[in-house]
Prior knowledge:
Elements: H1 2-9, H2 12-32, E1 41-65, E2 69-74, E3 80-82, E4 86-93, E5 96-103, E6 106-131, H3 141-164, H4 166-177
Antiparallel strand pairs: 1-6, 2-5, 3-4, 4-5
Amino acid sequence: MDNDKVKRDGILPDILAAVAWTFIVGIMLYCLCSCGVQKPVIEYRDSIHIEYRDRIVKDTVKFEVEKEVEKIVTRDSSSHLENKWAKSDAVVSEGFLTHTLESKPQVIQVPVEVHVTDTLVVEKEAQIIEKEVKVEKDLNWWQKFRLGAFWWLVAGLTGCLIWIFRKPLLALLKTVTGGIL
């Protein structure tokens, strides 16, 4: 009659019960290990600082005066004119006045004020800073036991659960694999 009940109810309720119990025991184990291990705190710092500086620079602009030559022919008397920029000669030839105006080749320097914006970029490389976090008091013997025994408890509980639910698990494996096992 037990075989009829297994066939009628199936393996699913047994597996769901196993999963539920595993979940409940897992929550209980998690609550047991509430204390943590002291770990160093690692901070990563990376910074870029951009600074703009405005300033006025006094500079001199140089430009060259181009040489120009002009000639005018008129009936008039002769003349000569000269200044620091140019000179002029007038010559009478065959009743005509030939007037020559010639600029002197030179470089002129003019002082100017120029607005300059400097960009200063200071980039610091990433730094890893390790700080040890100090706990006010050491762990007591019970807390040390719980930390050390946690994985042993998990392994033992897993083994017990597999042993308790071995028959439903084997039946599930047979149905999944198609009876190969």
